[in-house]
Amino acid sequence: MRIPWLIANAVLLILFGAGTYQQIVNQKNTNLVMEEVYQNISHSRELTQQTNRHLAPLAETATVMQEMNQQLSDTKKRLNHMNEKIGRVNASEQKIITGLDELNGYTKNVYEGLGEISSQNKEIKQLSQTISEQSNRENRSLLDLSKLTRQSIQELNQLNKKLAWLGLLP
Description:
By secondary structure, the chain is mainly alpha-helical. It is rod-shaped. It has one domain. The chain contains one helix and no strands. It has one helix spanning 2-163.
């Protein structure tokens, strides 16, 4: 009974040794893989740092482009606001043009009215000249009449003086 037990122990020891050996080999392989992973992580870290250094200008570019986009957005808002104001100015100008057209119509009517007044003034001027000439003739006639009246008064005064002695008679 000892031999089977010894064989069993020997088999167990061989299995234990083989298992331990396999575990050492697996651990060595795992260690190699882990070393490679570590080196890859280190290399990856260096690549990441280099990538970050190379991407830094792109980050700056992105920031500048974001600022440019904001400025373009602001410019668009200003242009829209300016277009609205131009639209209001255009509407005001249209009202002014309409008002000027109306004013031109009124001015034309006034001009035509002034033409009629001018014609009437010419007629009135002719009548005024005729009346003025008539007034001058009448004035001369009145002056002549006034002279005659003065002359008559003088002659009546002389006659009164001559006949004044008759007032003394009873």
